[in-house]
Amino acid sequence: MEDQNTPHTLNQIAGFHDLPLELQGQLRAMHANMVQRNLPPSVVESGLRSTAKLLLEQRHEQTPRMETEPVRHFLEANRGTSISRRSRAVPRKETKLRARERLHDQVAGLLVQANSANRRHEMLRVRREMLALDRGYIRRVLGEEGDVMCHAINAWLIEAATRLNRG
Questions:
Q1: Which of 61, 77, 100 is the C-terminal boundary of a domain?
Q2: Residue 99, SS3 per DSSP
Q3: Inside any domain, residue 72
Q4: Using CA atoms, how far apart are residues 53 and 95, in angstroms rounded to an integer?
Q5: Considering the domain boundaries, does residue 82 fall inside one?
Q6: For 109-118, what is the mean pLDDT?
Q7: Fewest C-beta atoms under 10 Å: which of 14, 48, 52, 114?
Q8: Could you tell me which of 46, 10, 3 has the C-alpha nearest to residue 27?
Q9: Domain extent for 156
Q10: 26-48: average pLDDT
Q11: pLDDT tens digits along 146-165
Q12: Is residue 46 located within the same domain as residue 104?
Protein backbone atom coordinates (compact mmCIF):
# COMPACT_ATOMS: atom_id res chain seq x y z
CA MET A 1 0.00 0.00 0.00
CA GLU A 2 2.43 2.63 -1.22
CA ASP A 3 1.17 6.19 -1.46
CA GLN A 4 2.15 8.18 -4.57
CA ASN A 5 3.08 11.24 -2.43
CA THR A 6 5.28 9.27 -0.03
CA PRO A 7 9.02 9.42 -0.79
CA HIS A 8 10.91 6.13 -0.99
CA THR A 9 12.81 6.86 2.27
CA LEU A 10 9.57 7.14 4.26
CA ASN A 11 8.30 3.80 2.91
CA GLN A 12 11.44 2.16 4.34
CA ILE A 13 10.67 3.42 7.86
CA ALA A 14 9.21 0.66 10.03
CA GLY A 15 5.75 1.56 11.29
CA PHE A 16 5.32 4.61 9.07
CA HIS A 17 2.02 3.35 7.67
CA ASP A 18 0.79 2.47 11.19
CA LEU A 19 0.83 6.15 12.18
CA PRO A 20 -2.26 8.33 11.80
CA LEU A 21 -2.41 10.43 8.63
CA GLU A 22 -1.69 13.63 10.61
CA LEU A 23 1.60 12.23 11.94
CA GLN A 24 2.49 10.82 8.52
CA GLY A 25 2.02 14.33 7.15
CA GLN A 26 4.36 15.72 9.79
CA LEU A 27 7.01 13.14 8.85
CA ARG A 28 6.59 14.00 5.16
CA ALA A 29 7.10 17.70 5.99
CA MET A 30 10.15 16.81 8.09
CA HIS A 31 11.54 14.76 5.20
CA ALA A 32 10.99 17.60 2.71
CA ASN A 33 12.66 20.09 5.06
CA MET A 34 15.71 17.88 5.57
CA VAL A 35 16.07 17.18 1.84
CA GLN A 36 15.70 20.90 1.07
CA ARG A 37 18.58 21.64 3.46
CA ASN A 38 20.76 19.16 1.52
CA LEU A 39 21.40 16.89 4.49
CA PRO A 40 23.05 13.56 3.71
CA PRO A 41 20.58 10.72 3.03
CA SER A 42 21.89 8.75 6.03
CA VAL A 43 21.07 11.68 8.35
CA VAL A 44 17.63 12.09 6.82
CA GLU A 45 16.85 8.38 7.18
CA SER A 46 18.18 8.21 10.73
CA GLY A 47 16.19 11.26 11.83
CA LEU A 48 12.99 9.98 10.28
CA ARG A 49 13.45 6.50 11.72
CA SER A 50 14.02 7.73 15.28
CA THR A 51 11.14 10.21 15.07
CA ALA A 52 8.75 7.56 13.76
CA LYS A 53 9.87 5.17 16.52
CA LEU A 54 9.19 7.78 19.20
CA LEU A 55 5.79 8.60 17.73
CA LEU A 56 4.84 4.91 17.67
CA GLU A 57 6.01 4.39 21.27
CA GLN A 58 4.12 7.45 22.42
CA ARG A 59 0.99 6.25 20.67
CA HIS A 60 1.12 2.80 22.32
CA GLU A 61 1.86 4.07 25.83
CA GLN A 62 -1.09 3.88 28.17
CA THR A 63 0.09 6.50 30.65
CA PRO A 64 1.56 9.73 29.43
CA ARG A 65 5.25 10.16 30.24
CA MET A 66 4.60 13.09 32.56
CA GLU A 67 2.54 10.79 34.80
CA THR A 68 5.08 7.96 35.11
CA GLU A 69 6.64 7.13 38.46
CA PRO A 70 10.17 8.45 37.72
CA VAL A 71 8.78 11.78 36.54
CA ARG A 72 6.49 12.10 39.58
CA HIS A 73 9.41 11.27 41.87
CA PHE A 74 11.60 13.90 40.18
CA LEU A 75 8.89 16.56 40.46
CA GLU A 76 8.35 15.85 44.18
CA ALA A 77 12.09 15.91 44.90
CA ASN A 78 12.52 19.27 43.16
CA ARG A 79 9.31 20.95 44.24
CA GLY A 80 10.75 23.80 46.33
CA THR A 81 13.62 24.85 44.06
CA SER A 82 11.82 27.33 41.84
CA ILE A 83 12.83 30.98 41.71
CA SER A 84 10.63 33.13 43.90
CA ARG A 85 8.38 35.71 42.34
CA ARG A 86 9.87 38.43 44.53
CA SER A 87 13.30 38.29 42.91
CA ARG A 88 12.62 40.13 39.68
CA ALA A 89 15.10 41.61 37.29
CA VAL A 90 15.39 45.37 37.57
CA PRO A 91 14.17 46.95 34.34
CA ARG A 92 16.69 48.93 32.31
CA LYS A 93 14.74 52.17 32.78
CA GLU A 94 14.96 51.86 36.58
CA THR A 95 18.67 51.09 36.43
CA LYS A 96 19.32 54.12 34.21
CA LEU A 97 17.29 56.33 36.55
CA ARG A 98 19.29 55.18 39.58
CA ALA A 99 22.60 55.76 37.76
CA ARG A 100 21.41 59.22 36.75
CA GLU A 101 20.46 60.06 40.36
CA ARG A 102 23.82 58.77 41.63
CA LEU A 103 25.72 60.89 39.10
CA HIS A 104 23.66 63.96 39.98
CA ASP A 105 24.29 63.46 43.71
CA GLN A 106 28.03 62.94 43.12
CA VAL A 107 28.43 66.11 41.04
CA ALA A 108 26.21 68.20 43.35
CA GLY A 109 28.20 66.98 46.38
CA LEU A 110 31.46 67.89 44.68
CA LEU A 111 30.15 71.39 43.92
CA VAL A 112 29.19 71.82 47.59
CA GLN A 113 32.68 70.71 48.64
CA ALA A 114 34.21 73.09 46.10
CA ASN A 115 32.27 76.07 47.42
CA SER A 116 33.26 75.26 51.01
CA ALA A 117 36.97 74.67 50.22
CA ASN A 118 39.01 77.58 51.61
CA ARG A 119 42.47 76.18 52.27
CA ARG A 120 44.95 75.46 49.52
CA HIS A 121 45.09 71.68 50.06
CA GLU A 122 41.28 71.49 50.05
CA MET A 123 41.09 73.44 46.80
CA LEU A 124 43.77 71.27 45.17
CA ARG A 125 41.93 68.08 46.18
CA VAL A 126 38.57 69.32 44.85
CA ARG A 127 40.25 70.66 41.69
CA ARG A 128 41.83 67.23 41.04
CA GLU A 129 38.43 65.51 41.49
CA MET A 130 36.67 68.01 39.23
CA LEU A 131 39.25 67.64 36.47
CA ALA A 132 38.74 63.86 36.63
CA LEU A 133 35.02 64.22 35.85
CA ASP A 134 33.88 63.38 32.33
CA ARG A 135 31.84 66.48 31.57
CA GLY A 136 30.62 65.13 28.23
CA TYR A 137 29.12 62.15 30.04
CA ILE A 138 27.55 64.43 32.65
CA ARG A 139 25.94 66.55 29.92
CA ARG A 140 24.73 63.46 28.04
CA VAL A 141 23.20 61.77 31.08
CA LEU A 142 21.84 64.77 32.98
CA GLY A 143 20.87 66.89 29.99
CA GLU A 144 20.21 70.58 30.65
CA GLU A 145 20.79 70.15 34.36
CA GLY A 146 24.17 68.57 33.60
CA ASP A 147 25.03 71.49 31.35
CA VAL A 148 24.33 73.92 34.19
CA MET A 149 26.49 71.82 36.53
CA CYS A 150 29.34 71.76 33.99
CA HIS A 151 29.20 75.56 33.70
CA ALA A 152 29.39 75.77 37.50
CA ILE A 153 32.39 73.40 37.50
CA ASN A 154 34.18 75.44 34.82
CA ALA A 155 33.48 78.68 36.68
CA TRP A 156 34.82 77.23 39.94
CA LEU A 157 37.93 75.87 38.20
CA ILE A 158 38.68 79.32 36.73
CA GLU A 159 38.13 80.97 40.12
CA ALA A 160 40.27 78.34 41.87
CA ALA A 161 43.09 78.83 39.36
CA THR A 162 43.22 82.56 40.06
CA ARG A 163 43.04 82.02 43.85
CA LEU A 164 45.75 79.36 43.75
CA ASN A 165 48.05 81.50 41.55
CA ARG A 166 47.69 84.48 43.87
CA GLY A 167 49.10 82.46 46.61
A1: 61
A2: helix
A3: no
A4: 51
A5: no
A6: 93
A7: 14
A8: 10
A9: 92-166
A10: 87
A11: 999 999 999 999 999 998 88
A12: no
Q: Which residues contact 16 (CB under 8 A, 6 or more apart)?
A: 6, 10, 24, 27, 52
User: Rounded to an integer, what distance in angstroms lies between the CA atom of residue 105 and that of residue 125?
Assistant: 18
Q: Considering only residues 48 and 77, tell me which one the structure prediction assigns the higher pLDDT.
A: 48
Hey, what amino acid is at 11?
Answer: N
From 21, 45, 61, give the residue that closes a domain. Answer: 61
CA distances from 114 to 53, 120, 138, 140, 156 (A): 78, 12, 17, 23, 7
> pLDDT tens-digit profile of 118-134?
899 999 999 999 999 99
Q: Which residues contact 135 (CB under 8 A, 6 or more apart)?
A: 150, 153
Please give the model's pTM, rounded to 2 decimal places. 0.46
Determine contact, residues 90/52, Cβ cutoff 8 Å: no
Helix 92-116 to helix 135-142 angle, to the nearest 10 degrees?
130
Inside any domain, residue 78: no
